[in-house]
Amino acid sequence: MIRKMMKVAIEGCCHGALDQIYSHIATLERAGEFKVDLLLICGDFQAIRNHSDLKCMAVPQKYRELGGFHKYYLGQKKAPILTIVIGGNHEASNYLWELYHGGWLAPNIYFLGFSGCVRVNGVRIAGASGIYKGHDYRSGYHESVPYDNSSIRSIYHTRQYDVFKLSQLSPPDIFLSHDWPNTIERYGDTDSLLRRKPYFRQEHLSATLGSPPMLELLKTIKPSWWFSAHLHTKFEAVYNHTNPNSSTPAAGPRAENPDEILIDDDFDDAHAGPVIENPDEIKIDEEEEDVDAENAKRPVAAKIQTAEREETRFLALDKCLPRRDFLEIVDIPVSDEFATPSEGGSPRFTFDPEWLAISRALHPYLSTTKVQAALPKPDEARAMIASELEWVRTNVGNGGLREINDVQKFWRTAPGPGQEEPAGPVWYTNPQTEAFARLLQVSSKGAGAETEGGSLHGSGAAEISMEDAAGFAPVPTGDENDTLENVDGGGEETHAAESGGWSPSRVAE
Questions:
Q1: Is 33 helix (H, G, I), strand (E, B) or coil?
Q2: What's the start-to-end Cα distance of the chain, in Å?
Q3: What's the confidence (pLDDT) of residue 121?
Q4: pLDDT over threshold 80, residue 211
Q5: How far apart are CA 95 and CA 48, in angstroms?
Q6: Of 71, 6, 67, whose CA–CA distance to 39 is shortest?
């Protein structure tokens, strides 16, 4: 029997080049006479809505460019392919934090969240945003808008809490990370990589290339595919879970990656001797390569047991530039149950029941202060998630496989460029996050007011249906019976800013 395949395009770093990426895919489709079903982008997406968002992105001033995303946000353009993205280390972090649990950044462009797992035609796609820095790994999400010189960087540093949540997953089909898993370069053509990128040699020899938490996740949840970006080069590897082995190439002098955007704090105080800087890296001050392998290993625990996979195929890709290996198309098998596309020919895009159970079970441990509360022990976490999985199957609808568009709609919270932009970054409460909280019957703390069960109390944001690509919708009335499904779209241009910050903190009693 011939299995149905879904054609998935994988992009490395986006850096705001959406037009070029979609154009390249269209060229490949015409040449190959096929249709791409899904695009996955592995970070540095840069969802910049306006000039204020630029002040929330950690890059030197010369790299602060508006880019083209705002045209998709405003409906002047629409993504031709369902696009799922994760965050990297060069993002409008204020906008991504509005959608901590995931949500639509623009019509047909979905952010997977700071950690998340969804299904497309039944294919389970999980991912982690950000990059690893040991000094922030055990912290809570204490940052708030406007960011200072420290928090503009720490907001995108991967947290133990998110890794712990992801470690509870049974094996997904696909995993996305911005960082490479630590030492993954040892499981491919290492010599070729080091010839092309000699500035990786010292980190390779010291086993500090990549993220230790991502390696532990790879070994724990064993996805079929793992896609990454960040280091601006194409690299393939196969990690054999039953018999991992590695090779150690000859030592040599360390150079720095000319392909990296340098930010002042992106240094490694473990590197000794003279270095040649990577011209392709954005460098930010104080972003040291801080690898604490023992710290990183601790959160992995207690996933739901399923049949184990023997190997994970790893693919990293470059950033979108001419003559670079920035995009690849992969055929992913789809089960017969999901072989028929949803109405209109677009893929079926649903929540993942197990991830909803994990999110509900571990929601009380999400900290929005500097201190991260102790996470549950493995047996305790396993029991909590099993109980919540039954709740999800009973209460969410369709056994937990609920269509995401039934719950979350794109809402344009901030103005576009030139639309009465605020003087500086301000906070916007995103109703998509409220809708997710309402789905799981958990509470969140809005800006200055408690909202129980995720209900919408006049947040002032405006819903934009996926079909309506232009203008703002009327403001919700604040009636407790209002849902995202029954607020009509329209042409009024409105937006509302709220001071302070959103806290997705506690499960409702």
A1: coil
A2: 50
A3: 96
A4: yes
A5: 8
A6: 6
User: What SS3 state is found at 94?
Assistant: helix
Check residue 26 and report its DSSP letter.
H
Query: Cα dist. 497→270, 374, 430, 452, 461 in Å?
Result: 43, 33, 10, 20, 8
Nearest C-alpha neighbor of 218 from the set 175, 185, 162, 158: 175
CB 53 within 8 A of CB 94: yes
CB neighbour list of residue 340: distance below 8 Å, 6 or more residues apart:
none
What is the CA 98 to chain-centroid distance, rounded? 13
Task: Give the separation between CA 97 and CA 159, rounded to whole angstroms.
Answer: 14
Residues 168, 220: contact at Cβ < 8 Å?
no
> In which band, very low, low, confident or very high, does the pLDDT at 301 lie, cut at 50, 70 and 90?
very low
The answer for residues whose C-beta is within 8 angstroms of residue 303's C-beta and 6 or more apart is: 167, 168, 169, 170, 220, 221
Bridge partners for 9 per DSSP: 39, 329
Task: Quote the CA–CA distance of 419 and 312 in Å, as a whole number.
Answer: 47
Partners of 265 in beta bridges: 285
In whole angstroms, give the CA distance from residue 12 to residue 73: 21
CA-to-CA separations, 223 to 135, 305, 306, in angstroms, rounded: 28, 13, 12
Average pLDDT score, the chain: 80
Q: Are 163 and 182 in contact (CB under 8 A)?
A: no
CA distance linking residue 186 with residue 189, whole number of Å: 8
CA angle 141, 90, 84 (to 5 degrees): 85
Per-residue pLDDT tens over the stretch 146-191: 999 999 999 999 999 999 999 999 999 999 999 999 999 999 999 9
d(CA 327, CA 334): 21
**Cis before 146 (ω within 30):** yes
Distance between CA 196 and CA 324 in Å, rounded? Answer: 13
Does pLDDT of 436 surpass 50? Answer: yes
